[in-house]
Amino acid sequence: MTKRGKPGLEDIARTLGVSKMTVSRVLRGATGFSEVTRDRVLQEVARTGYLPNRLAAAFGPSGSSTLIGVCVPRLTSPLFGSVLESLNHSLARLGYQTMIGSHNQLPEEEEVWLRTLASWKPAAVVLASRMHSTGTLALLRDMGVPVAEIWDLTTKPIDLAIGFSHFDNGLEMARCMTAAGRKRIGYVGALGNRNTSGHLRFQGFTRGLAEIGMTLTAEEHLHDQPGFYAGYYGTETMLSRNVTLDAIYYHDDEMAIGGLAYLTRIGLRVPEDIGVAGWGGMEAASILPRRLTTTAIPTARLGKIVAEAVVSRLRGDPVAEVTIIQTRLVPGSTI
Amino acid sequence: MTKRGKPGLEDIARTLGVSKMTVSRVLRGATGFSEVTRDRVLQEVARTGYLPNRLAAAFGPSGSSTLIGVCVPRLTSPLFGSVLESLNHSLARLGYQTMIGSHNQLPEEEEVWLRTLASWKPAAVVLASRMHSTGTLALLRDMGVPVAEIWDLTTKPIDLAIGFSHFDNGLEMARCMTAAGRKRIGYVGALGNRNTSGHLRFQGFTRGLAEIGMTLTAEEHLHDQPGFYAGYYGTETMLSRNVTLDAIYYHDDEMAIGGLAYLTRIGLRVPEDIGVAGWGGMEAASILPRRLTTTAIPTARLGKIVAEAVVSRLRGDPVAEVTIIQTRLVPGSTI
DNA sequence: CCGGATTAGGTTACCGGTAACGTCGCATCC
DNA sequence: GGATGCGACGTTACCGGTAACCTAATCCGG
Q1: Which residues pair with A150 in a beta bridge?
Q2: CB B44 within 8 A of CB B15
Q3: CA–C1' gap, A27 and D29, in angstroms
Q4: Dist CA A239 CA A226 (whole Å)
Q5: How many CA atoms are closer than 13 Å to the CA of A144, on its beta-carbon side?
Q6: Whole-prediction pTM value?
Q7: pLDDT in tens, A78-109
Q8: Is there a contact between A317 and A146 (Cβ–Cβ < 8 Å)?
């Protein structure tokens, strides 16, 4: 073993009487060694408890990194949490590690994060955001690594896109509501008018209404982060303008549940007096007195598919430029 | 600029007519350069858009890494999500990056994660778990980097401990319940009997009852992950054994809300017929028809404090071995 | 039995920072 | 005026893998 520190590739090689390169080849599962050599190497590796040095591997002119950067809007959302957990787990099984960041729906924060990430020479980047700053785009180009845009679908992906159409999710919910005979519909959203996935659902929703000549009776776009509170107070604010509604579509399930709490408090019956629909398919939606009408997102499956797509891309295997994940409108009983 | 690729330290140095080392010193904010040189370097760095190579920095015999590993039970919990987001943000401001993993309350998964992390030569490790395998402990010793055990307090920290006593949280809630006159109390938990923070709260809770000579009237330990469903069905299962209760303490708020949904469905009034208490202080707890009795955890503050403590430790500044974060019992109106 | 293809390795160069240490000039002080 | 100290740099060595290239032995069909 070299003077101090942990055993390295060279230590394994020396005790076995082979070269570093042979050991490296075996460990990377490359070709160019016999069965016998492979077994001897693996045995010695196990005996010494050798730990590879990813830093060194990712360094060099070769630079074969196993690091993948992932940036989502926030870490406090169970939806993104589920995607991340699934992605992390799947990538780990495939031999990759992640560096996770959040951009809080601000393109500048994404850019700052990406700049830091770039200094770690990642093998690929996964972004969950609709808007990228010009700096981000330039940096991605410079980095020259695969990029997966997930969560939403883009018309022109930078490289890969994996997700589903939030616009269609909104559209579908509008059709569901109008088909149920709702006439005076309101919308409560969050994150202002920023170009987020939620805003895209809103646009799809209004389009769905427009299809049959309807418009929103009222809308309330809070600037807060989505959440139970926001749904509660957003509903209160909207109704305080003395509008009469027979249904409300919410930014997401948390806000819908918050809204439900307010509606119940002021004595409205759901769905008799007013209908409610959310988005996201969170677990809580199914234990309410009445199962919430929502759109379920297969987050864990999404994470797994993203992991597989990115790794295929890195291995040079053919990958579809756009992969659509199927979402499901859960009728529930609040419409 | 060297043949191909991005500008490096050497390129900056050459155009300025100084050595790489001088540029490195300026960029790291070390000493040994004049004001004039500093300004010239910074200007050239800005002009070329130089990006440092953390890989190279963390490599070498020097090995000054800015990577910090963080492992939490799961990424789908808003509580841990909030801690991670705050930790991530605070560490980023201090010039550090994180590599995040989850262990799903299984010490073996934590060990596998740590082994992978170790191959990236991190500067420090943050663990949110009560149980560590012997392999984990050995590896941590070998790595020889600062270790912060967060979330729960341990009697003998490996290095640093930052958190609060889950045992005391449970104890305090027991006192709150008994002080309110509750006599026949049940408990609904998750994750089986594994040595988790939740189980520690359970133990503190039973101790609190024992203090005044009481015992639990019923208890239900599900093996599932905590969640709304689990709370709902756990309550159903417990009550199906024909026990009569006047209060239930839950693993956490999500389960309490799930339980509340079941209790309401079967026609029990809260808190008149039965009291309910959760833990965690999640946002949803405050928009229920009656504000949920719970324990609020300052997750964002915890993340910030952990970041500062770890960085102080890395800089060699003195740091308290144990830091206690104050939690707050929210009386609510469900007890 | 021979020549080209394949297999199983070895050799070399290199990546981009950083600790450690050496050096030089200049101000200071006795 | 010589010794001393220190600020401001320059030099050197090095980390641990990996692509690219090279070599020797083996194999196999004609």
Answers
A1: A162
A2: yes
A3: 35
A4: 18
A5: 4
A6: 0.95
A7: 999 999 999 999 999 999 999 999 999 999 99
A8: no
